[in-house]
């Protein structure tokens, strides 16, 4: 027994199929756009990660340089302090020599 479909039900089915095709095309378009946005976001993330890596390396170099400068400044301060102490000792010795060689009383020639 053959089932004969009436023209109205055939038209409804064709309309439903067309709507499904149209909806499928819309979903495919949205999926494509979503994948494109995802790829763009991924590229931006890679750029940001690379900039972060460069910034971290620069920070490490700066910290290392700062440590070296701090050590150098401590050494310079110690050397300067030692020089000051040496000069003070020399001045003290010179002062002692001057005081020891002074005449007790001025000599009058007249």
- Kindly state the percentage of residues in helix: over 70%
Spatial separation of the terminal alpha carbons: 164 Å
Strand residues, percent: under 5%
Quaternary status: single chain
Kindly state the number of beta strands: 0
Q: Which class of secondary structure composition applies to the elements?
A: mainly alpha
Low-confidence stretches: none
The H/E string reads H
Radius of gyration: 47 Å
Biggest pleated-sheet summary: none
Counted by DSSP, the helix tally is 1
Shape: rod-shaped
Mean pLDDT: 91
Give a description of the structure.
- By secondary structure, this protein is mainly α.
- The radius of gyration is 47 Å and the shape is rod-shaped.
- The chain has one helix at residues 7-100.
- It is built from one helix and no strands.
- The termini are far apart.
